[in-house]
Write a structure and sequence with these properties.
Number of strands: 0
Number of helices: 6
CATH architecture: Up-down Bundle
Shape: extended
Length: 177
Amino acid sequence: MNAQSPEFIRVIEIGDDFSRKARAPGGSPRDVAIKFAQEMLTSVRPPLVDYLGDECQRLEVTLLAARAGNGDYASLMAVAYEASQNIRDVAEPAGQSLIGFIASNLCTVIETAADADMQYPAAIIDCHCDALRLAQNPAFAGKTIGELPELSAGLAETAQMTKVLAARRLRQALVNA
């Protein structure tokens, strides 16, 4: 017998409260639990959509202020990054996966530029603002990123361009050091 044979496989039971309750008889059947979760998600969706709208507005205002040079650029971009994270985290449960994709992509752009200590490419920020406005248009409400392959490819390309610019900036910093 080798170490992989069934006689040598040892199942370790977890004895915490959650595990005991999960194994206890009389719990909700899976289909009932899923239906209940879907109903709960449906009931919280309207406030999530409102919250998303507020965060999208905050993000756009902040990005445009940073782009125009109104205020402390680093602070504005920190607020934009926070709003992007909030949008990314809430968009999917709110049924707004397109907005979530845009926000996630913007998070990548902001993180990449910050890591390279470079200015955020203005054209890329403008592109994300435009995409965010488009995604909030009622004609695009509920669309998935798979339904808009040109948009998804374009946004992915902007993130890649930011990575290229950041790598170039880091290489230049090493040469100058």
